[in-house]
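Section 3.1: Structural characterization of target chains.
Under the original work plan, the team committed to producing a structural model for every single-chain target entering the pipeline before any wet-lab resources were allocated. The record below documents one such target. The sequence was received from the expression subgroup and is listed exactly as submitted; it comprises 160 residues.
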Amino acid sequence: MTQFRQEVSASEKANVTAIGDISAALEATLAQEREKAEQERHNLTAEIQRMINTMVENQQGRWTSAVDHVKQDLSASQGRVQGGFQLVSKGLDSWQERESAFSKKLLNNKEDVKKSIVEASKVISAGSNANCRLLISAGRQFKIARDAFMLRLLSSWILR
């Protein structure tokens, strides 16, 4: 029995030692897996960061290109506006010079202009009087023609 107890005790010690070895192996395996998982997460995070950085760089490149294009369009528009403004300014300057010359000429010929206005008003007045006389004369002629027509019509009707 003593021997059997020694064998069971030895077997138990061997089992405990084996269980301890298995537990240590499991701990080592878990530690290795944790380390590998951490490394994979780190690698994945680094890859995601590279992808995000690449995407951001591409977006910034597109935005920069679009902004540069718009800036060029604005610059060209500004040039056209300035050219148009200069053209309008030159036209206004020219108009002002012509208007100034006309005003000077008009002031110099003030008496001639007054005479022309007086003569024009006389012509208009005379024309207006002539038109009135013409209308009155035409009205009389119409009345005479109407009366003659009515008289003929009446006399031809009475004779029947």
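Helices lie at 2-108, 110-159.
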